[in-house]
């Protein structure tokens, strides 16, 4: 008596709905492999981080250290300074140059494996700017050529308009932007 309902309608509507977006990535970025893998609290979660591969190449090569001789000399004599400057910009001012440099030095003195610590910053920098993982995995680059990797990261940030000697907050002021990590300005309460 009543017309028969189309039984395939719910299936077609379900198939046409877009998939839900992936959850936000948290934890340390892990290099290598094919997707967005993040280490979070001891468990590895494979996240489908946009299917787009990084397309930007590094502005200078890994062995172009002599393009900036002063930084090359500083990095050879005291790599903690270069690492601290790079880490402050990558962390967007949440850690200072001195803190990052001191932590790098402490890890170097206690374990001799500071390259494991610094490769996380290379991976974080690549994620921020969409850079290629070249010439090989981040940990391999820092393990084999620690000083060259630090110099390359320094030059990349410098070519992107950062004055590395100023730090994050002074660079934001110079560029006329407020730093994202600055707390909002509080207005005084009511007075008589």
Automatic annotation (TrEMBL):
Question: Which keywords appear in this protein's UniProt record, sorted alphabetically?
Answer: Membrane, Transmembrane, Transmembrane helix
Name the domain of life. Answer: Eukaryota
Q: Which residues cross the membrane?
A: 101-121
**Keyword Flavoprotein on this protein?**
no
Chief subcellular location equals membrane
Compositional bias (Pro residues): 17-26
The places in or outside the cell where this protein is found are: Membrane
Q: Which InterPro entries does its entry note?
A: PLAC_motif_containing
Segments of this protein annotated with the region Disordered: 1-28
Q: Name one GO cellular component term.
A: membrane
Q: Which PANTHER family match?
A: DUF614 FAMILY PROTEIN-RELATED
State the name under which the record lists this protein. Cell number regulator 2
Tell me what organism the protein belongs to: Urochloa decumbens
């Amino acid at each position: 008596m009543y017309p028969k309902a189309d039984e395939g309608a719910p299936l077609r509507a379900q198939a046409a709905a877009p998939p839900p977006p992936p959850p936000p990535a948290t934890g340390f970025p892990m290099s290598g492999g094919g997707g967005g893998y993040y280490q979070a609290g001891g468990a590895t979660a494979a996240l489908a981080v946009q299917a787009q591969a990084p397309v930007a190449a590094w502005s200078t090569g890994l062995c172009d250290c002599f393009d900036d001789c002063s930084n090359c000399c500083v990095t050879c004599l005291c790599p903690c300074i270069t690492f601290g400057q790079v880490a402050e910009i990558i962390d967007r001012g949440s850690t200072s140059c001195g803190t990052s440099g001191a932590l790098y030095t402490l890890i170097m003195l206690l374990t001799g494996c500071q390259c494991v610590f610094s490769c996380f910053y290379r991976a974080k920098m690549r994620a921020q700017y969409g850079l290629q993982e070249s010439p090989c995995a981040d940990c391999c680059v820092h393990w084999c050529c620690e000083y060259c990797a630090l110099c390359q990261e320094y030059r990349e940030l410098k070519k992107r308009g950062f004055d590395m000697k100023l730090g994050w907050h002074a660079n934001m002021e110079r560029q006329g932007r407020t730093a994202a990590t600055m707390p909002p300005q509080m207005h005084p309460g009511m007075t008589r």
